[in-house]
Amino acid sequence: MSASWDNTLRLWDIDAGKPLGVMREPNKARGFALYKDNSRAVCTGSGLCLSIWNVDDVTSPSLITRLDTGHTATVWGVEMLIEKPSEPVRCLTFSQDGTLRVWNLTEGAEREEVSGRRAFDPVRLTRTVSLATHFLIHT
């Protein structure tokens, strides 16, 4: 899967080097994450929304919903949080506005917000997202 500034996300056949399915976003797509079972994709971007796509049929992905993230600047990325069968599906979004937000995707609602003093660096945060995830889950 890839996210692009041309407002698309693409599912790929790696062996053939060709896209299988295309998802169109209203703004630049910046980041994505897949559910553990690969049935859905969650994506973020400059449109300040969190989109959830059904990707069971990779040649014809369909939009399930778009959620207003509450972020006030570009949402750099999204990471899925560790899932336990008894818990709702959750993800973490991080934004240029200096906030991290934890989402309950089962209910389509924000669970909590963590604010920083400056924008989160997407490269640095991606490298350390497991630490941030651990901190948010266990505090």
List the helices and strands and how they pair.
Layout: E1 2-3, E2 8-13, E3 18-24, E4 29-34, E5 40-45, E6 49-54, E7 62-68, E8 75-80, E9 90-95, E10 99-104, E11 109-115, H1 122-138
Antiparallel strand pairs: 1-2, 2-3, 4-5, 5-6, 6-7, 8-9, 9-10, 10-11
Provide the residue-averaged pLDDT. 81
Oligomer: single chain
The helix/strand series, from N terminus to C terminus, equals EEEEEEEEEEEH
Number of domains: 1
Helix content: 10-25%
Spans of at least 5 consecutive residues with low confidence: 133-139
Radius of gyration: 15 Å
- In CATH, the topology is named Methylamine Dehydrogenase, Chain H
Describe this structure in words.
The protein has one helix at 122-138; strands at residues 2-3, 8-13, 18-24, 29-34, 40-45, 49-54, 62-68, 75-80, 90-95, 99-104, 109-115. With 139 residues, it is mainly β. It has one domain (31-138): YVTN repeat-like/Quinoprotein amine dehydrogenase (Methylamine Dehydrogenase, Chain H), CATH 2.130.10.10. The strands form three sheets. The chain has a four-stranded antiparallel sheet, with no helix packed on it. A four-stranded antiparallel sheet has the order 8-9-10-11, with helices on one face. A three-stranded antiparallel sheet has the order 1-2-3, with no helix packed on it. The longest helix is centred in the last third of the chain and has 17 residues, at 122-138. The protein is globular.
